[in-house]
UniProtKB/TrEMBL annotation:
Record organism: Paenirhodobacter populi
PANTHER family given in the database record: FERRIC ENTEROBACTIN TRANSPORT PROTEIN FEPE, TYROSINE-PROTEIN KINASE
One example GO MF annotation: protein tyrosine kinase activity
Gene Ontology CC terms, in alphabetical order: plasma membrane
Coiled coil: 249-276
Protein name as annotated: Sugar transporter
UniProt KW keywords: Coiled coil, Membrane, Transmembrane, Transmembrane helix
Bias (Low complexity): 18-64
Residue ranges of the TM segments: 83-105, 413-435
Region (Disordered): 1-64
Keyword Membrane: yes
Keyword Protease attributed: no
Amino acid sequence: MTISQPPAAPVQKVGTGAEAKAAPAATEAKASPAVAKATPSPAVAKAPPAPASAPTTAKAAPAVSAAPLTPLEPPKLRLRHRLMLLSFVLVVLMPGIVGMSYLFLRAADQYHSRAAFSVRSESFSGALTTLAAFTQIGQTSAPESAVLYDYIRSQELMQQVDARLDLRHIFNLHPRDVVFSLGDEATTEDMLDYWQRMVRVTLDSNTNILNIEVHAFRPEDAVAISQAVIDNSADLVNQLSAIARDDTMRAASEDLTEAQDRMRDLSSQIRAFRDQNSIIDPAQGVQGQMGVLGALQGQLASALIEKETLLPQASGQNDPRLTVVDRKIAAIRNQIAEERARVREPDGDEQSMSTVIGQYEGLLVDLEFARTAYTAAMAAMEQARAEARRQSRYVAVHINPTLAQESLYPRRWILSGLLFLGLFAGWAVMALAYYNMRDRG
């Protein structure tokens, strides 16, 4: 295919013929290397220059030369990068692999046993409840479930179960497992901490139900420990019930004795009062005097009527009949005044009748209250005796200790993941701290 080019403008020849011959060669030398690569044939490359008579351009186009592309070198790891990688291996990978290997190769299998129970309280109610409430003797029970929660986690229960089952032997069945075993040289404090990790107890505050989960290296050991915890908890509840019953009996007995003494003292005071005033019942004496006054008032009214009747018939004020009636009226009025004075004012060392009656009524009120308190104390005593003959608090087990058939602990995959996560978090914190100090420095 032939490409036609437009004729170049005539160029004025300057200089000698040799220079004219050299011009086409210089023009070809400045041609683009791409053209040279397009026609790599040696014959074409070594072609003689065009004759001088060939038309040439006045000004050749500038040649475009491309610089050779050098390949990029791979980034080199610096010293700090290598140290970071080495620290990741030393801090995260190696400890994580060692811990994971221990969990899967040396950690002993653990079996669990679950149980659940609660403390039931029966309130005694009967015909004596109202009388017992009068003396404020009631059943104020503490939250027994909270007491048992602390008791199960206590050193006292651990020592009791240890004396019964030999916990040091049970928790050291696999001496190669130094992480999850108790250890032969464990102190009491170490054993208590291990006990709280192997015997887990939770308390539901709404239902007051205690849930325990016991871990051991054999399923039968876990069941035995769970049963021992329940038995000792029941013994503690029985002891607390016995103490409560003894306190109730003692308080009821003291109240009864005090009521008896008070009633006897008031009875003695009433008897001395009657001997001092020579009267059995001041109220009845007053009623007798009121009867005398009533009779005198009646006689006085009759005498006044009689006088009014005699006035029209009398001959004058000196009529003997009027004189007799007037004397009778005066005598009755004097007697009425004496009777009233005897009620209001004492005669000599004697007290007035109103004072005597007030003192006597006060003693009667105290005696009545003492009798009521004595009756209530007797009722409370009988109720305390009735409660002492029955068990008012007891441990109700609604989930007996279960026997495991498969080992679920330790949770190896979960512990391994947590181990790697913790190691990586620690390594990341140290790396960030290093780069922070490096940037600031």
